[in-house]
Design brief:
By secondary structure, chain A is an alpha/beta fold. Helices cover 33% and strands 14% of the residues of chain A. In chain A, a hairpin with a 2-residue loop joins strand 5 and strand 6. In chain B, 39% of the residues lie in helices and 16% in strands. In chain B, helix 1 packs across helix 4. The longest helix of chain B is centred in the middle third of the chain and has 19 residues. By secondary structure, chain C is an alpha+beta fold. In chain C, a hairpin with a 2-residue loop joins strand 2 and strand 3. The longest helix of chain C has 20 residues. Classes of the chains: A alpha/beta, B alpha/beta, C alpha+beta. Chains in contact: A-B, A-C, B-C. At the A-B interface, helix 9, helix 11 and helix 13 of A face helix 2, helix 3, strand 4 and helix 4 of B.
Chain lengths: 330, 142, 371
């Protein structure tokens, strides 16, 4: 697959179709790949494609098209990007919200078979990272790990996939200029919403306790916000001083406000790419909350995020017969 | 701090200027009796209400929040309340999901002619919030 | 002889030992939490994770917590008039350093202890003495735990560190498997062991041999390093080079590197009012200090709306210059200890070692090709 990618990128640079290409390069730690920015044919050799390419690259796109850069005489850059299914959905969302012009993008879609979760892998070898993994090699569905005591472990890639990859519905982007691999759709609809349904069955107090527990780990580093492609606001509500929504204290109520606020701002926009969960250094289970909104939007308004460029976003429109059982009647 | 029997909930009511606020006004002019726990904030349209206001109110120790607008189809700004309906459906579902008692945050449609209905809704909301007790979740400790 | 000061305590006795002194000391130990290892107050139920690599969040949070109330205030109701101006009286700031026990930090890694001595230069320097930091710092005894197994991302040896570095600690411990070898470093450390002598016995030659062997092995394990000789001078010349354009591209601007770093110290001071305020006569509030980060949008944002560091290029440059150029200028120390937290936790795998190597190997294309 990587050869095909390199071929296409080489052609794009040769034919002067793009100014910059965003893909993945080799990481400096085992089980990591890193975002890679390429501006010329000489750097194409840096590109890689493997099961560690977990970053959502769409997060970099809106930075190239900031309003202040859209001056009349400034030429907007043409950007090539390697997009997995989740990245593709993010890109669709950004195009719809007029953050990036479709004409300036060249999307190399690639069918993704899931990315390996680093925490899961570390815990499979040793809890609390007491023994470090020094090398990882993947071969035909298996991952061969070697730790610093020279002990080798072989694990199935399936078992190490990130939760968000396990639930993935669209493994290749639906909007692309060229597609590598086949567009495969996993139809495990029932399983997908299962963990939300499980959680909903629990009593109210238990859900609150879990929410508090998760949220109390937060150190307000804002990594989730920065890693999310949808969080491109020039001024985030968390930084606003007029009005001051969130205080600076460690009070859990402030942390909750930030989390609830950010998640609510993703209503109808979150594509479940998992970038926030991966970025979080404290390992907060964010998906159980973001996913609820995705499910609600699907159930209430029949809208699936990141699928079509034409469909109007759910909170920008209405239907006469929208459900209103929640309205209080005397 | 107050005796549980004497405790009265504090409820903030966001009323849309053209319908619900007028309805509340009518209730007043008609001398209709209803619980005096609500503090009214007049907004031009229920669609103006940012979900953050509701969460901020809960954070500040308000025991219940009511947002009331025009009936669907009657909005002075044509579709403000219709978009709001979608927003509030998501907000209510999400707040309940994370464990905030559903009775604390409520939404209603009250038209300018429905003074009596307004009073009934306030009765209902106050009763429900009173049963839930003073808010503890989400409150910011000083 | 130095070795006569070395003592041994059995590993299995350590918990009881700490429990016995918890009345005199507020004890902080590394503790397993579901987000990783973090320094928390001693709990007899939880064993010390002797094989832990390092705490997720650096223990700077013990002296320099994420949020700290500097003082609280409550407006009185009497009005004082003074030369035409009127103002309400403010009660004496509350919370002025209540009497608390001495602190004991147990099991910190030598690199983190070294970080304390760096922060001491800032918070306790000649120009300004930070009472909040110093008040806790001066009543603290630090017992560090030497590293038997440095991680692949550790590069403390490039920054005046080593697995058994003694700087910043009062006592250093060595994990000899069943025994713990304790070496007092400062007078405070000596006194501490003296007072609790009944728990320790004299270290034998064999123990010291074992410790030396372990440390040799440990030092050899640190393979990752960057030659940082004259980095300050190097960075003096590299402010405007185009290399910075490439280094910052991946950066998301999340605050992880700064929050977890043991020597990052930027902070914000803000006032918070009680939510019942707004009632003029009874305004209560507090002044809070909280962590800030050079990566946050509000960092160096002017009131006019202009920000001299508009993109992550300027911010990454600021971070590296601050640690490797400005601090050496101000404090004659590089403000990095090579713990590798920023490398392990960066979501996009920006590797500080890689960045430093690129900068160090930059050749200026001018007439003076100084390295």
């Amino acid at each position: 697959m990587i050869e095909k990618i390199k071929e296409i990128v080489k052609k794009l640079f040769k034919e002067n179709k793009i100014d910059i290409f965003i893909g993945y390069g080799e990481g400096t730690l085992p089980l990591r790949a890193t975002p890679c920015f390429i501006t010329g044919q000489d750097d194409i050799k840096k590109l890689v494609w493997n099961s560690y390419c977990l970053n959502n690259l769409a997060v970099y796109l809106s930075g190239f098209f900031l309003p202040q850069l859209k001056k009349k005489d400034v030429k907007l850059p043409r950007i090539g990007i390697l997009a997995k299914g989740c990245d593709g959905r993010s890109i669709v969302g950004l195009i719809k919200e007029h953050q990036i012009p479709r004409e300036n993008l060249y999307i190399i879609g690639i069918n993704c078979e899931g990315m390996i979760d680093i925490e899961k892998t570390q815990n499979a070898v040793c809890k609390m990272q007491e023994i470090e993994i020094v090398s990882a090699e993947e071969k035909s569905g298996k991952v061969l790990l070697e730790d610093e005591d020279n002990k080798k472990t072989e694990l199935k890639k399936e078992e190490l996939l990130a939760d968000v990859c396990k639930d993935c519905q669209y493994t290749a982007p639906l909007i692309y200029d060229v597609l590598i691999g086949e567009e495969k759709r996993k139809t495990k609809e029932k399983e997908r919403a299962a963990f939300i349904k499980e959680f909903e069955k629990k009593p109210l107090e238990e859900r609150w306790k879990y929410f508090q527990e998760q949220v109390s780990k937060c150190i307000r580093c804002y990594a989730c916000r920065q890693a999310c492609p949808n969080c491109y606001c020039k001024e985030c509500f968390a930084d606003q001083t007029k009005p001051k929504w969130i205080g600076a204290t460690d009070d859990i109520s402030d942390i909750m406000f930030f989390q609830i606020g950010r998640i609510l701002h993703q209503a109808g926009r979150c594509v479940d790419c998992g970038a926030c969960v991966r970025a979080c250094p404290m390992g907060i289970d964010l998906r159980i909350f973001t996913y609820k909104l995705i499910e609600d939007v699907k159930e209430f308004f029949g809208y699936e995020v990141g699928i079509s460029l034409e469909e109007t976003p759910p909170l920008a429109t209405f239907k006469q017969d929208d459900k209103q059982e929640f309205i209080t009647e005397p | 701090m107050e005796n549980k029997n004497n405790w009265e909930p504090k409820i903030v009511a966001f009323l849309c200027n053209w319908c619900s606020y007028a309805g509340a006004d009518l209730a007043g002019v008609s001398r209709t009796q209803y619980p005096s726990n609500i503090r009214v904030i007049r907004v031009p349209c229920s669609g103006r209400v940012n979900p953050f206001y509701i969460i901020k109110a809960l954070q500040n120790g308000i025991d219940g929040v009511l947002v009331s607008g025009c009936h669907p189809g009657d909005c002075h700004y044509i579709s403000g309340n219709l978009i709001a309906r979608r927003k509030f459906a998501l907000l209510k579902s999400f707040l309940e999901y994370i464990g905030i008692e559903p009775g604390r945050v409520q939404f209603s449609w009250v038209s300018a002619a429905e003074g009596g209905r307004f009073a009934q809704i306030i009765e209902k909301v106050t009763g429900e919030v009173k049963k839930l007790g003073p808010i503890k979740k989400m409150v910011k400790e000083f | 002889m130095e070795s006569s000061k070395l003592k041994i305590i059995k590993k299995r006795d350590v918990l009881k030992f700490l429990d016995s002194i918890k009345k005199e000391y507020d004890i902080f130990v590394p503790m397993e939490k579901n987000s990783g290892i973090r320094f928390s107050r001693f709990n007899l139920e939880k064993d010390i994770p002797w094989n832990y690599r390092n705490a997720k969040i650096s223990p700077k949070e013990i002296f320099f917590p994420k949020t700290e109330t500097l003082f609280s205030f409550e407006a009185g109701t009497s009005i004082i008039s003074d030369g035409g101006k009127t103002f309400t009286s403010v009660n004496e700031p509350k919370d002025s350093f209540p009497e608390t026990k001495d602190y004991l930090i147990f099991g910190i890694r030598p690199c983190d202890a070294q970080a304390y001595s760096l922060l001491d230069k800032l918070f306790g320097g000649d120009d300004f003495q930070d009472p909040y930091y110093l008040e806790k710092r001066k009543k603290t005894t630090i017992i560090s735990l030497a590293c038997n197994k440095p991680q692949s991302t550790c590069f403390c040896t490039s920054l005046k560190g080593r697995p058994d570095n003694e700087e910043g600690a009062d006592i250093i411990l060595f994990d000899l498997d069943e025994d713990i070898l304790a070496k007092p470093i400062t007078k405070k450390g000596e006194k501490f062991i003296e007072n609790l002598n009944s728990w320790f016995k004299e270290a034998k030659e064999a123990d010291i041999e074992k410790k030396n062997k372990l440390m040799d092995l440990s030092l050899k394990k640190i393979r990752s390093g960057v030659d940082l000789q004259h980095i300050k001078e190097k960075l003096d010349k590299t402010f405007d080079i185009s290399l910075w354009n490439e280094i910052h591209q991946k950066c998301l601007g999340c605050g992880i590197c700064t929050y977890l770093c043991p020597t990052c110290y930027c902070f914000n001071i803000t006032d918070e009012m009680d939510h019942e305020a707004g009632v003029l006569a009874t305004s209560r509030g507090k002044r809070i200090r909280c962590w800030d980060s050079c990566m946050f949008p509000l960092f160096t944002l002017h009131a006019s709306g202009h920000n001299p560091r508009p993109t992550y290029k300027e911010r990454m440059r600021q971070r590296i210059m601050h640690k490797f150029n400005y601090c050496p200028e101000n404090f004659e120390e590089i403000f990095c200890i090579g713990c590798g937290r920023c490398i392990r936790n960066c979501p996009v795998n920006i590797d500080l070692r890689e960045t430093l190597v690129l900068l160090m190997s930059f050749q200026s294309l001018g007439k003076n090709k100084k390295n």
